[in-house]
Amino acid sequence: MSKQALLMLDDGTCFAGESCGAEGEALGETVFITGMCGYQESITDPSYYGQIMVFTAAHLGNYGASPLDDEAPAPRAAGAVFHDLFVPPKTEAFPHWRAAEALDAKLKRQGVTGIKNLDTRALTLHLRDKGARNGIISVLDMDKASLLRRVREWPSMQGLDLASKAGCAHPYAFDSEDKSAPVPDLHVALIDFGAKRSILRRLAGQGMKVTVLPATASATEVLDLAPDGVMLTNGPGDPEPCAYAVNCIRFLLGRLPIFGICLGHQLLGLALGARTYKLPFGHHGVNHPVLDLTSRRVEITSQNHGFCVDPQTLPARAEVTHVNLNDGTLEGLRVKDAPAFSVQFHPEAAPGPTDAAGLFVRFRSLILQHREGRCHA
Amino acid sequence: MPKRADIKSVLVLGSGPIIIGQACEFDYSGTQGCKALKEEGCRIILLNSNPATVMTDPGFSERTYMEPMDLDIASSIIRMERPDALLPTLGGQTALNLAVELHRSGVLRECGVEMIGAGAKSIEIAEDRELFSKTMRAAGLDLPKNGIAASLEEALRIAGEIAFPLVIRPSFTLGGTGGGLACNMEEFRDIVRRGLDASPIGRVLVEESVLGWKEIELEVMRDGRDNAVVICGIENFDPMGVHTGDSITVAPIQTLTDVEYQELRNDALTVVRAVGVDTGGCNIQFAVNPQTGRRVIIEMNPRVSRSSALASKATGFPIARVAAKLALGYHLDELKNDITGTSACFEPTIDYCVVKVPRFNFEKFAGAKPVLGLQMHSVGETMALGGNFREALQKALRGLETGLSGLEPVPVKGKNSPAHSSWEHPEDRLDTLRDILPIAGPERLMHLYEAIVLGLDLKEANSLTGIDPWFLIQLAQIAATEKAVCVSLAPQAAALLASGKKAADVDKDGSFAAFLRRIKAQGFSDARLAVLLRKSLGDASLDESQVRALRHSLDVRPVFRCVDTCAGEFKALTPYFYSTYDGLYQDPAHLEHVAACGARSAPQVEGKVLPGKVIILGGGPNRIGQGVEFDYCCVQAAWAMKDLGITSILVNSNPETVSTDYDTADRLYFEPVTIEDVLAVCEAENLCEEKGGLIVQLGGQTPLNIASALEAAGVPILGTSPKDIALAEDREEFSALARRLGINQTPSGMAGDSESVCRIAGEIGYPVMVRPSFVLGGRAMRVIHREADLRDYVSGRENGFVLDPASPILVDKFLEDAVEVDVDAVCDGRTVSIAAIMEHIEQAGIHSGDSCCSIPTHTLEDKVLERIRSDTRKLGLGLNTVGLLNVQFAIRTGKVFVLEANPRASRTVPFVSKATGQNVAGAAAGVMAGLSLAGSGFIEEKTIACHAVKEAVIPFTRFPGAEISLGPEMRSTGEVMGIDRSFGMAFLKSQSASGAGIPASGNVVLTVTDKDKEALIPLAARLKALGFNLFATPGTGAVLSGQGIDCELLVKIGPRRPHLLDFMRDGKTQLMVNTVSGSTSARDATAIRAEALTRNIPLLTTLSALSAAVEGLEVSRRDKRSVAPLQDYYAGLIKTGADG
Questions:
Q1: Does any CB of chain A come closer than 8 Å to the CB of residue B960?
Q2: CA–CA dist A175, B12 (Å, integer)
Q3: Interface predicted TM-score of the whole assembly (ipTM), two decimals
Q4: pTM, full prediction
Q5: Could you give the angle at the alpha carbon of B497 between the alpha carbons of B491 and B503, nearest 5°?
Q6: Domain A163-372, what architecture?
Q7: What is the mean pLDDT of the segment spanning A96-114?
Q8: Min CA distance, B458 vs chain A (Å)?
Q9: Residues on chain A touching B265 (C-beta within 8 angstroms)
Q10: Is A348 labeled as catalytic in the residue annotation?
């Protein structure tokens, strides 16, 4: 029998469950994720930096964890909340051909504190109605008053610069392990706000050599590499405090082809002069329908963000290209007078559908067009 | 593009009779589709021969054609109605096949009818295995290695290139008919021959076996702009090798990584695009190698399927409704998800687990091997939603209504070892189980679970069954919980019960309650816990109700959650709920719905206050004897309640049905129809406090079985009381009632031991009819001609039926040559109003569900009809009926005998409703809610100017080896109706709709029993005049020749060859007439019937049927058959033709 654990939200709502993963405490903004599989990709997505992830699926951990599916060397999430976590008999190898270990073992090994066997649906409905909020998971402190005090002291995500912490500290060249990737003929500078490895893989798959730069890289550092294009990656939290990145992007805009994903998209929006705002409980799942206004077709997308670009504030030089069918929020934009476009969702998927993977091809074409100097995006 | 303006009228094809592989899921999809088309203002023309369906309710379409679904009729309908479009994707394989025929015949082009949903080309690609393989390979997708053969030689050549085991699938057959798995040459030759025969185009696919691979299905929707979404992924618990219709299936997919799943998803979308399904839903089936992840495509259906129904109910996404709208030109993003109000262009995500368990009826087919394979055998299914897989699985098992209360040991068939012996000799028992586990049978899961309880290593379990370790570990978790119940829960519960204190006082910290809740969250029912506690504590008196009381005293109750398509991301508007113990909090949406209802004042009609809410119990899984007819009744009742302003609530567990569509009733609880689960719903609905009531008489035997227990638990039952329903079932009490009312009965007696049974039979005189009490569908009923057979019967050797003094059997004099009559009536407690009197065309002794019958009656004299009417009235009042009443009579030489009377819905209610144009079930529901018959506007014996004939459809071809004979035990899965101006024509239509159309010419073989020979003479003469060539066995032939009627003689079945059967086998017989009396000719008849069924030769077994057929043929020489919609019959636009 596992130890008792508690999850306390900052509005005093408390859920009891059992400890899993690393025993200890976790503090962070509590958000729910509705994907039914792909938990490992989500847990290792650096965009969840500092968050407590609530998985709505009934069963988690069914196929264990495989090094193939990590989106970053280690999870950056603060904690994880599960309903039914699969713990196979310890004596045997994990019963799935791709798995190297159980999810629980991976969480323990990598220091993610979890709580399981709680009513994740009630928790999800609460977060949906009351908005994403800070929470604390603890197996150490069973005093509810103390938990509430401490969770209330925890800072809100709004206004926090997390991107500079979630990405790499030093530049490096991405070594694509994929033997089937084409020989690179283009070079892309990737500004790492907490990038998922799948973005790097997708770029490599488009024949691009990728140099990864820290979030705080300056425009000069980027231009010094003389790349063919710039990739602005996903990352955690609020884009507004990342003035360094906004400045950098503003300088690069028009000089190099730019493709932004998620936080990278929000930062491009800020660089264009638009504003961002916080959604009540964000989009975290793999079933979000996005209408591509150009093709009039719908793509089912993977999403993970709490902030959003306000389309009302977009300048005339930018054009909305994608819209979320559920809530009408802005999902993609294109700059009319410069080779730059971005999407709020994750075309690299992992987890989730790859309907929008064509955007990487579009990035490649954009770079090629720009190189030939024929036209803008 | 929004809706197309050029489609104003649509011809919708239904799926015809319920058969194995094509059940009421197509009533569900058809009903939903018709509703959607209607919403869009389309004029709907519907063709479906099945009267038991909801979709053929005349309110759903402007023109409801209840006609045989053949090319000829469909073409005339198209020429008359000139629809703009034909929608074939909601009516299963039957509709697709007919659509392809219509396309090929050119009538669509001639009349400018566009096929919408799926075009002829894509149907062809999906259905023709060769073309499908080619298309898939061209699209870069992997398939099992295979080849197509049109002959045995070709098949052998292909087999040489691929290793055994090999799968053989005939082209263009339904549910895998004629297919199979061969592990050696001998099996291979056999199956290939059978497959070539079964395939209408004489081709089979020979394929690499992917036995033991994971089986995954994806439900895809695509619109005209090529937007495509996956609605639901379904994983089979049973690996490849068992037909998916026979597998336990689970949603969402449990054992695939996201990487694997996304590859499948991409493949699925590629398939849909390659096949070119224009709009709507389709289903794609994959096999995934559990060791390497290699994935291959097995098949795709370019239409709504059984899995679509399951996916709809599992996720809340209305696939058929959306498919219908897409066919009209809408795009997915232009449609709304009714449940959340957000876009319909999305992929549902669920936060619970769904398990479907198939229901089998092997016991109905003595001689058939209960082994599962590539050909589907299940006759129904039940689905359950739970907070986790374990809970959902156990809920589904108790919803199966095979007597299981969850996972529990069951006896091994054919072994003389009752389940409980496992406690005495666990090692021996485990060995027995090991032996049988590799064979997939209906009860393998139970055996597997027992083996795990007894310590079977999970690795070994995996190698014996191929079932994924994840599922096996879930079973092991249930087994561990079972142990915890016995070891920890039992002593604590005993101490608590013994203390006499309030549970809450003893369990101050709530730890015991939490423990019990954890156990309940693993799906353990109160009934199962009672069994385990009894065993552990040795307290034989402990029962389910005590466990429930204990649970209530600890306040351990389920929570009700909303099925919302989105795992809680958006607020759900739709009242569709399931229960779970794996959670602590009620969904606010559920509480809001119940509160809103409680705040409404109860409706008043005729100065009476009606109940504010009514819960209608559905019928659970379909099985032979209980099918779509009862769902039809429940749905009609729900609508009747809505019309009266009463909140209607449905409880059912059958995912195929209209009753479990979320917008049928005001609220839907997708729950097993058991005492525990129904009581939980009643409690959640505050049924008793809010003066509501429960309807139990419409869902067949399922709700009736639990009615008394529910009433005892304090639930108010509407309509006829459970006591009176039980009285009608109790033979002794019923006989007493009949005697008191002065109603004739056949001599009978009742006994619980074999000696007394035989003594009674001897006194009454053979033949006798034997029947156990409390069965529906005539389970284990037989006509017996001699004592030896009776002794065999009561020994239980024949059919597993065990004679038990506690539930004795009835022995009735069997009236040979009697005409049987069914009456459906409604009674409000004061007046009995007859809906219709039906005359059977089949010989007496065949279960009414399997027999052919007509409205109006066609041979009964007025005097007899009057007697039937007065007997029915007496019985209705005598049984204190409030609601429906069905009475069966036998008429012999003008004398009327009552066979049985049941104050509940009968199988014929929908047929009566369609044939008379009066909603019988709806009227009955109104009466149960408190209306008077006078107030309900019900018209007694409403007549329309036509004849309607109902015929049964029986699945013998699915059970090779089974004894093929009709008797008092029901075996049919479905029914059709023929309607026309004359009785003869209506009869011909019913035969043709059931798949055994009477030929207009050719060779007819006559072999009748002595007493029929005289009466055969004029009929034979008329056959001759119609141009038939007559053949007869010597006895029959002699009589005919003596009357100057020429006929060729055939040798009787016996050692001399060639004989009658050879004549049939050679394809020289177009029509077979064989009547029987006594047991000797019965043996020949069995052989003849078997041959007729295999060769699809129409067979008539009574002279009344022959007379009907001859009449029909004669009419058809003079007059065309009338092809007209029910609406025209009801409006009196069709005039009756003179018969004969």
A1: no
A2: 58
A3: 0.97
A4: 0.94
A5: 105
A6: 3-Layer(aba) Sandwich (3.40)
A7: 95
A8: 10
A9: 353
A10: yes
